[in-house]
Structures are given as structure tokens and as C-alpha cells.
Amino acid sequence: MPLEGYTSKKSVYARYEIIGFISSGTYGRVYKARSRLGEPGQFAIKKFKPDKEGEAQYTGISQSAIREMSLCSELSHVHVVRTVEIILEDKCIFIVFEYAEHDLLQIIHYHTQASRPGIPARTVKAMMFQLLEGLLYLHRNWVMHRDLKPANIMVTRDGSVKIGDLGLARIFRQPLNSLFTGDKVVVTIWYRAPELLLGTRHYTPAIDLWAVGCIFAELLSLRPIFKGEEAKMDNKKTVPFQRNQMQKIVEILGMPSKEQWPLLTSMPEYQHLMNLPAGNSRIQNHSGLSRWYWNIIQQQKYNNSSLMGVSPGNEGLDLLKGLLEYDPNKRLTAEQALKHRYFTMEEDKSMKNCFEGNTFEYPLRRITEDAEMKTQGTKRGAMDDPMPGRATKKIKG
């Protein structure tokens, strides 16, 4: 896909002043920046590592980076993080995004402190609505995200939710090979759909909706609903059965049945599923999920706190059931979820600002500042991670 209009020949250091370091991962590093050319607002700059970094011979840009560049340059929606430009420089790729002051994980952590109530019910509803609108846009344009989780859902200061980090996203229209062939493991373990855990070779955008259901549950409870331990691949890169993660799901949802999920027995890991300790669980028809849900509603005092607003109630439970449906063919689509009564109740107001009505403000994202970054790009390597042993300090947003 063409990148014309997004790539820049000007040095990243000439265009942007680096304010601080945000985070790092397998792909590279992310920094907060402001424009040196008078462009309004702030920016997040994602610097990709060269493929096989550290080798004596330069091996080029990673395939993952190329895919993310292609997708970011084509997508444009109010609830997907906007790509400002792409800069190719010094054997590195820099993707410049609009900056968001918060993410859902930070907001969840804010509310886990004992002195604070849960996330207001109206805030949860608006966040979910905007997240689903962004996801509907991706799916209508044949893009599967494949890594939805609270840390990848950004929220701006004015309450706009934006889907970020398309590093694992893929086009799913008429693929030349099954997506499993290219990436055998997708989605962070706690948000991974059961069909993925059971080893399916062909999956659909329904895996994103399962992750949305897990995020919904986490916004309500302030903790992951299925917090399993991941089994790592062995030296032969064999994908193991994620026994503990599947166990966590079965403990709440019960054991799936062939009647409930007709293609269940065709799953490669079906026999492993039958050998789970909870294999004889009598939980059926979402009764375990209902118990979990109403316990959470009671714990968070949705019905007794004026701050919380109206309880998510039966409508919230029904939406959660539809998103956490075992059979991906029966799971709600993004379009169906947006039409759910949870969102369409007459008394609900506009959901364009998820912070509307809140009597408090969330702290801004914290970033790291160090002496090397203060050079503002005047030295080569000013955007590298802080040097080992270098004193750093936290600065607000």
C-alpha cells in the first residue's frame, strides 16, 4: 500500500522535540514528543528496532513493522489512533501518532486503590461504545486487530477512546494462507479466545469480540476475568496447549458442549480440553458468569453510589454473555453489540465523552525523562532507551 503523504524526508530530530520515554516492547520504543515546527498538540513516536537488532550485518526492517506501516497509513477513524506521518531514517522507522493522555490499563489501576470506588457505570458504557465503534470500522475494512487489551486502548483527555497498537493486526479478506501460518500465537493470553486456545487453524474477527468481552469484565471488576498462566513455547517452537488459561475460562463459563458449539470436537486441542480437572463442571447456560457478574456489581456498589450512576444491570450481563460466547459463530459481532439494549436504553445520554459527568480527573500518563533526552535530539541516539545506571525521574504527561 502506498505511503505517499505519510512519509517524511526530514529528520525526526529536526521535526520533533523529545519530551520523554513512554514504553518499550519487542517492536522497539515509544516516546512522547512535541513539534518543533509549530504543529499543535503532542505526539507519540514509535521507533522500530531493525530486524534482528545487534547482528553485525544489517538485516533490514521487520515484516511486522512493514505491515503496521501499511495499515496505519490506510486507516482513518475517530476511534482508531491517528497516524500523523512515517519517517524513514538511519535504518530505522519512526511512526508518529497523535498522543493520548491515558489508556484503559492506567484508568483501571487508578481505581484499584482502596479509597476509590470503581469506574463510573456511565464511563464504562461510553468506553465500551466507542471501543466497539472503532472495532466495527476495522472489521468493515477487513482488519483484525488480534491484540486488544486495556493497555492498547488509548483515551484522550477529552474522553475519546482510540484503538492503538496495530502491530499484530492483519487483513483477513482472501488471505493467501491461513493467518495461523504467519503468526501461530496471537492475542495476549488473558484475552485470548477459546478457539485460539484450542488450536484452531482458521479464525475470524470474533476473536476480537472475545477480547472486548474480557475488557468489559475488567472495567467492571478492576481485574482480569480470566487471569491464567501462560505456557511458553519449547525450543522447537511448538505451540503448547494453554491448560491453565482454558481452566480459568471453564471455571466461570463451564465446560463447552458439542450442542453449544457444534465445531468443538474438530478443534486440534479438543482432547486436552476434555482432560481438564473441571471437565465434569456442571455449570451450564452462563450461570457461572451470572454469579460472577452479580458478585462484582455488589462489590463495586453500583446500586448504592451516586458516583457510579445507574447499574449496568441485566442489560450489561446480557451483553457480556453475548461477547463471551464459546462458539465464535454465535458470538456478537461489533455491529450487533452496538445495537444491544445496554447502549440503546432511552435514558442514556451521548457517549462521545466517556469522562462526562465525572467529578474527578485521571492523572496524566507518566513518562521518563533523563539527561540524554534533554538534548532534544541534538546528539545521535537521543531517542534510545535510558542508558544503564543513568538516573531517571518520572514526569507527568
UniProtKB/TrEMBL annotation:
Name the source's superkingdom: Eukaryota
Keyword Kinase attributed = yes
Instruction: Give an example GO cellular component term for this record.
Output: mediator complex
Q: Which InterPro entries match?
A: CDK, Kinase-like_dom_sf, Prot_kinase_dom, Ser/Thr_kinase_AS
Segments of this protein annotated with the region Disordered: 371-397
Q: Where in the cell is it found?
A: Nucleus
Q: Does the keyword Metal-binding apply?
A: yes
Main localization of the protein described in the UniProt heading: nucleus
- Supply the alphabetized keyword list: Activator, ATP-binding, Kinase, Magnesium, Metal-binding, Nucleotide-binding, Nucleus, Repressor, Serine/threonine-protein kinase, Transcription, Transcription regulation, Transferase
Could you say which EC number(s) this protein's record lists? Answer: 2.7.11.22, 2.7.11.23
> What general EC class does the enzyme of this chain belong to?
transferase
The entry lists its GO molecular-function terms as: ATP binding; cyclin-dependent protein serine/threonine kinase activity; metal ion binding; RNA polymerase II CTD heptapeptide repeat kinase activity
State the reactions this protein catalyses.
[DNA-directed RNA polymerase] + ATP = phospho-[DNA-directed RNA polymerase] + ADP + H(+); L-seryl-[protein] + ATP = O-phospho-L-seryl-[protein] + ADP + H(+); L-threonyl-[protein] + ATP = O-phospho-L-threonyl-[protein] + ADP + H(+)
Would you tell me the protein name for this molecule?
A: Serine/threonine-protein kinase SSN3
Q: Which organism is it from?
A: Microthyrium microscopicum
From the broadest rank down, the organism's phylogenetic lineage runs: Eukaryota, Fungi, Dikarya, Ascomycota, Pezizomycotina
